[in-house]
Amino acid sequence: MQGPSRVALAAGQDRLELLVSSAGTDAARLAQDLFGVTNLVASNAALRRALTESSRPAETRAALVARLLEGKVSASALDLVSGLVRAQWSDSSDLTEALEGLAVSAELSGAEKAGRLDRVEDELFRFSRTVAGDVTLRDAFAVRTPGVERKRQLVATLLSGKVAPETLSLASQAATAPRGRRVEQVLEKFLEAAAARRRQLVAEIVAASPLTEGQRSRLGTTLSRLYGRDIRLNVDIDPEVLGGLRIIVAGELIDSTVLSRLNTAKRTIAG
């Protein structure tokens, strides 16, 4: 991706992380909705152009998404896709790539929350090697071989009840919607996303007001230096903390909020 598309994807990823960190978001449902939108956009060149054409006002593009998707996908998915189409894209195909990448991220986020991320990565790798090493499976999943539902059923037969739900979902997407790629190639891309996520620590941050890009950058750098690993920031806004930040990384709480200091003062006085 180039220039504007990279900026749009980064903004979409930030929005996704905010959504999946919310207690009310079903990451698995969000992933399935985003995969559905990915497949819709990938199969319709005219729609891709309509959703990415910079000569169309951003709100017009968002309104088209609303007409197409409202009532058919979750509110979280609609919110995310609407934000994506309001952005500028260097190439219409980049929107498809971004949608798939965010769907994968949502699926992996669900696995991470459930403590299954390592398992999912291992299962995807094993399935990829199984397909690569079996000419019959390679032919069955080949792009030239018709039958999306038949491919989905084959994945289910091979994996259902044997792997994590996120593995089954990702393997099914790779097999049924490879978009001109071999299944192994799609799975390798999914594996790269899983590995990148696993190498990161997640900092759950509560702030009284949104952080600026500069503040996010400085905080991320500081935490990365402190923990010796890449840190992904999930920022939630809660005006009741009054000021400062509440940060949880790897189960450790760093609380510098005004509310925390007030509560500490109250306990001291009461003691």
TrEMBL record:
F(1)F(0) ATP synthase produces ATP from ADP in the presence of a proton or sodium gradient. F-type ATPases consist of two structural domains, F(1) containing the extramembraneous catalytic core and F(0) containing the membrane proton channel, linked together by a central stalk and a peripheral stalk. During catalysis, ATP synthesis in the catalytic domain of F(1) is coupled via a rotary mechanism of the central stalk subunits to proton translocation. This protein is part of the stalk that links CF(0) to CF(1). It either transmits conformational changes from CF(0) to CF(1) or is implicated in proton conduction. Belongs to the ATPase delta chain family. Transmembrane segments: none annotated. It is a peripheral membrane protein. Signal peptide: none annotated. Its main location: membrane. NCBIfam families: PRK13430.1. The keyword Disulfide bond does not apply. Keywords: ATP synthesis, Cell membrane, CF(1), Hydrogen ion transport, Ion transport, Membrane, Transport. Pfam families: OSCP. It is found in: Cell membrane; Membrane. The keyword Transmembrane does not apply. This is ATP synthase subunit delta. It comes from Kineosporia succinea.
